[in-house]
Design goal:
The longest helix has 29 residues. This protein has one domain. It has a two-stranded antiparallel ribbon with strand order 1-2. The radius of gyration is 32 Å and the shape is globular. A hairpin with a 3-residue loop joins β1 and β2. It is built from eleven helices and two strands; from the N terminus they run ααααββααααααα. With 283 residues, the protein is mainly α.
């Protein structure tokens, strides 16, 4: 087999050397920094503007409507991390309906009450400047929340069935659960305030049930309710022989029967409604 072997090196270069060029190297990081500065600039400007008018904003938030709406927005943002903003918004609105039941009944009784203030992952609270006159009136205030909350959940359920929305049906289920949970017979939950008109001894059963629930499914919220409920139960138990306490818990048989029927009937209805709205698959 023959092959070619060069006898000498060629007299010309095999390639032309690239002439030197005067240029600056490209730095991608600089471009990204520039883009980042452009994106952050509007937010920085807004922050600076809010800083200048912070005293005005604080004054506005002293009004009840701003306090309620502001805490609602914070709660929606917090729940959105778990469920998404649509479900979070619906959930917070259902809590609002529940709390408005307490507000309406308190004001109907002439008891000064604040607008609801929302606390992420703890629900909402309504401030009272004084307690209702007696256990019968306290029970009516306590039951007004779950009653109105149940009606709100029923409306969501009906709309969900009408437009075939699993999101709304799931919201209704959550609303029913929320109101049923609040009927646990332990203070500070609504059920604890309601059963005070039946017999304070029922609180012991509620406390035992909450302890079992906390062991079965540990949760910071359950533990907090358990601590507050234990302290409140101990306080009321120590004051049981006080003349004012005896007057406060003096309830007629008709009033006791009314509270018992509403309490048990509402709990049974909510349990059935939860079963009816339970979804096997996610929406």
């Amino acid at each position: 087999m023959s092959h070619f072997t060069p006898q000498h090196e060629p007299d010309y270069p095999l390639y032309e050397p690239e002439p030197e060029r005067d240029y600056e190297p490209i730095h991608p990081e600089s471009r990204w920094k520039e883009i980042g500065k452009k994106l952050i600039a509007p937010f920085a400007a807004i922050a600076a503007l809010l800083g200048k008018f912070k005293f005005l904003l604080l004054a506005l938030f002293k009004f009840k409507i701003f306090a309620t709406s502001g805490t609602m927005l914070v709660s929606i943002a917090a729940y959105s991390w778990i469920w998404g903003w649509r479900f979070a918004a619906g959930f917070v609105l259902l809590i609002l309906v529940h709390e408005l039941g307490h507000v309406f009944e308190l004001r109907r009784q002439g008891v000064p009450a604040s607008a609801p203030l929302f606390i992420p992952f703890l629900g909402a609270v309504v401030g009272m400047k004084q307690m209702p006159a007696d256990a019968w009136k306290e029970a009516r205030v306590a039951l007004a929340g779950p009653i109105l909350g149940t009606l709100g959940s029923l409306a969501v359920w009906g709309l969900g069935e009408a437009i075939d929305s699993q999101l709304l049906v799931a919201l209704a289920f959550t609303g029913f659960f929320l109101n049923l949970f609040n009927l646990l017979p332990i203070v500070p939950l609504d059920g604890g305030r309601a059963v005070a008109a039946l017999h304070p001894a029922i609180w012991a059963f509620g406390l035992a049930a909450l302890v079992a629930l906390a062991f079965w499914h540990p949760n910071p919220v359950l533990i907090l309710i358990l601590v507050v409920g234990t302290l409140e139960l101990w306080r009321r138990w120590r004051e049981r022989d006080h003349p004012e306490a005896a007057t406060y818990y003096k309830v007629t048989p008709a009033q006791r029967l009314t509270v018992g029927v509403v309490y048990v009937g509402l709990a049974v209805f909510l349990a059935v409604a939860m079963t009816a709205t339970h979804l096997e698959r996610t929406f």
